[in-house]
Amino acid sequence: MSIDIKQFHGVFFDESDEHIQEMERQLMALDPASPDAEALHSVFRSAHSIKGGSGIFGFDALTNLTHVMENLLDRARNGQQQVTTDIVDLLLSTLDVLNDTLQAYRNDSDVPQEAIEAAISALEACLCADNTAQVAVEDNQSANTEDDGFGFFDDDNELCGQTENAGDDIEGFGLFAPLPEGESPEDTEDCASSKHNDDDGFGFFETPAISKEPEPVSASTPKQTIRKPVKTSSSGKEAASIRVDTTKVDAMVNLVGELVITQSMLSMVGQEVDGQVGERLQLAIDELQRNTREIQESVMSMRMLPLNMTFNRFPRVVRDLSAKLGKKVTLHIEGGATEIDKSLIEKLVDPLTHLVRNSIDHGIETVEKRVAAGKTESGNVILKASQRGSSIIISITDDGAGLNRERILEKASQNHLPVSDDMADADVWQLIFQPGFSTASEVTDVSGRGVGMDVVRRNIESIGGRIEIESTAGEGSAFFIHLPLTLAIVDGMCVSVGDQIFVIPLLNVIESFQPLPEQLKTLGNEQLLWIRDQYWPLVHLHNHMQVDGAIQTPTEGIVVLLESSKKRYGVLIDSLMGQQQVVIKSLEQHYKKVDGVAGATIMGDGKVAMILDADSLADACTTGISEELTA
User: Fold this and answer.
1) What angle do helix axes 453-462 and 342-358 make, rounded to 10 degrees?
2) Do 433 and 452 touch, CB atoms closer than 8 A?
3) Measured at the alpha carbon of residue 113, what is the angle toward residues 109 and 117, in degrees to the nearest 5?
4) Are 130 and 86 in contact (CB under 8 A)?
C-alpha cells in the first residue's frame, strides 16, 4: 500500500516554524561571554529535527543548510567551537535563509539557492577557521586514538566543505523526531563507549588527558563543559494538545453563532407562553442560555492565542535595527500572555513592526544626544498588551525625543493639508497618518519615503481597531492600538431608527444622552452638538441609512457619542434597545459592501440588524469643524 507523504507536509511546516522561532529566541538570549549549554543543546535539537524531517520529504536545500548549521552547533555545544557575537549573528542570518527556504517549499516556489549557498559557505568558513586554529590541540588529544570517528556525527576533518551526504544523516528519526528534551546524541552510545577504556575518549565527548595539575583555560582554548543529560518525557505535553485546522475551528464558531441566534429566538417565544408551562419553559431557556454562553466562550477560546507569538519576533527586530543605526536600545515586553483572536494576530504583525521600527529610528536618540540630555545611554522601547473589557490595548512606548510638533506642521503645510498653529496636539499627531507624510530629513532604507503610517492606520481600521498617539517633547512617545477581542463576536448596543435595528460596537461608544436645545448649533447645513467643552459633528443616522419614519429632531431623540480612529462625533437615533453580544456575519460575502456598515447579525426575532462601522460613519462628518469653532 502506497502512502501519499505530501499529506504530512503541513505538520512538518508548522513544526519547523516553531523550531525556527525557538532557535531565534534561544540565540537572542545567548550570552557569548558565557553561553548556556542547555540553550545550545536546544538550538541543536531544533536544527536536527528540521534536518530529519526535510530529509524524509526530499527537501534537499533545507537538509543541506541545516546539516552544516548543525555541525557548527554541535561543536559549539561540546566546547570545541568558541561562541562569539559574530557566530551568533551568523546563525541568526542563517535562520532568515532557513525560514525563506521553508516558506518556498511551503508555497511550492523557487528556493533561494544563492542565499543558501552563501549561508553554507559562511558556515563552512567559520568551521574551517576554527578547526585550523585548534589542530594542534586536537592532535595532542587524539594522539593515542586510532579512529576519531566513533562519535555520533562526522569527525572534525569532515566538517569543512562536506554537505553532499547531508541527506543520508537522518538516523532513522521516523517522521518528526526531535531529540527528547535534555537528551543529546551521545546518550545513544553509552553501550558502545562503555566497552572501551575510559581513557580512550571514544564517546561523544572527548575525555581529557589525566594530569596532576589542571591546565589553565585561555581565550583561544574554550572551556569544555560536560553536562549530564536530564532525561524528561514530553509525552504529557504532546497528549495535552492537538493540531486542528483553523477552518474546522471557524466552522464550529459559525455553528455556535447559529446556536446563539436560535437560543435568542426561543427566549422571545418563551415570553409569550403563560402559566406553569411558561414558567417551566423559561427555566429551561435560562439553563440553555447559560450553557450556550459557556459553549460559546469555550469555542472562542480555541481561536485565542497569546500575543507572545507576535511579540517574540521583536527582540530580533530591535537588535538588528539598533545595531544598524548605531543606537543602544533595550526592548521591554509586558503582557505577552494576553490572548487575542488568531485572525487579528496575523494582521497585527506589519503595523507593530512599523511602529517599533519608527520608535527606534525616529524616537530613540543617539548615545551622544541621550547623554547630553541627561538620559541613559540605552533607550527603552516598551511593547505592552492588556485587556480592558472586550477590548485589547497594545501600546508601543519609547523614552526618546518625542514627536516634533513644529516640523509636523511645517511638513503638513508643504503637503497642502489644512492646519493651524492653534491645533490641539492630538490633532497634530494624527497628521503623520496622512499618505506620503514623512518628516525624515533624508531617505534611507529604514525611513523617509513617507510610506507606512497611513498603511498602519488602514490595517488597524480593517480589523475594527483604532490608534491614538501621546507625545511629550524630550520625554518620548506612545502609540495605543485599541482592538476588539475577536472579529467573530462583538459586544454591541442595540439602537432603533424608525423600524430598523442597528448595533453599535461598544468599543466605539463613549456615552449616550438626550440633548438640550442650548447644546445644539447650526453651521451652514451642518448641525453640531456642544458637550464636554467642545463641538461634536452630528450624524443623522436615518439620513445616512435612508430609513423612513425616524425622529429628526435631536431634542426628541437620543445622541450616542462615538470615538473612531479618525475623530469623535455624535449619532442621532430614536431609542436605546439594550446591550447584547451578537455574532458578526459578513455582508460583503452574502450581499455587497455597504457604506457605514461593518457587518450584519440576526436578532432573536429573526430580523437582520446592521452592525455600524464607526470609522466609515466618521467620513460623513464635516472635516475640521471642531477647529473652526470655539466656545
Assistant:
1) 160
2) no
3) 155
4) no
Q: Which of 111, 150, 124, 22 is nearest to 70 (CA)?
A: 124
Q: Are 141 and 201 in contact (CB under 8 A)?
A: yes
- CA distance linking residue 98 with residue 295, whole number of Å: 41
DSSP alpha helix (H) spans, 134-196? 135-141, 190-193
Q: How far is CA 315 from CA 309, 330, 383, in A?
A: 12, 9, 10
Architecture label for domain 5-214+228-239: Up-down Bundle (1.20)
- Distance CA(598)–CA(583), nearest Å, equals 12
Could you tell me the residue ranges of all domains in the chain? 5-214+228-239, 247-305, 307-484, 489-628
Residue 154 confidence (pLDDT): 43
Query: 572 φ, ψ to 5°?
Result: -90, 125
Determine the 3-state secondary structure of 194 from DSSP.
coil
Q: How buried is residue 548: exposed, middle or buried, by Cβ count under 10 Å (0-12/13-18/19+)?
A: exposed
Biggest CA–CA distance in the chain, Å, is 102
- pLDDT of the residue at 396: 95
Mean pLDDT by groups of 10 residues along the chain of 631 residues: 69 86 88 86 89 86 90 88 88 91 89 90 82 49 41 44 45 42 44 40 38 37 38 44 77 81 82 86 88 83 85 88 91 91 84 91 92 92 86 91 90 85 86 76 50 80 84 92 79 90 89 90 83 88 89 91 82 89 75 81 81 82 46 39
Does residue 456 contact residue 354 with C-beta atoms inside 8 Å?
yes
Q: Which three cell numbers mark 257? A: 453563532
Our CA angle for 189, 158, 127, nearest 5°, is 105
Minimal CA–CA distance to 398: which of 387, 384, 408, 409?
384
Rounded to whole angstroms, the Cα distance separating 452 from 467 reads 14
Give the strand pairing for 379-388 and 329-334. Answer: parallel
**Cα distance between the two ends of the chain:** 83
Residue (of 448, 449, 451) closest to 433 by Cα position: 451
Q: Is the CATH number 3.30.230.10 carried by domain 307-484?
A: no
Beta bridge partners of 502: 495, 610
Which residue type does 555 have? Answer: T
The answer to whether 550 and 542 are in contact (CB under 8 A) is yes
Name 85's Cβ contacts closer than 8 Å, sequence gap at least 6: 32
What backbone phi and psi angles, to 5 degrees, belong to 402?
85, 170
Position 176 scores a pLDDT of 43
Residue whose cell numbers read 461634536: 536
CATH superfamily of 489-628: CheA-289, Domain 4 (2.40.50.180)
Pure H helices in 359-437: 367-372, 405-414, 425-429
Asked whether the beta carbons of 324 and 366 are under 8 A apart, the reply is no
8-state DSSP, 109:
-
Q: Which residues pair with 533 in a beta bridge?
A: none
pLDDT of residue 420: 84
Please name the amino acid found at residue 136.
A
Dihedral angle at the C-alpha atoms of 317, 323, 328, 334, nearest 10 degrees? 10
CATH topology identical between 5-214+228-239 and 307-484: no
Q: Would you say 52 and 170 are in contact if contact means Cβ atoms under 8 Å apart?
A: yes
* CA-based nearest residue to 224, from 27, 37, 44: 37
- From start to end of 243-378, where are the E strands? 304-306, 329-334, 339-341
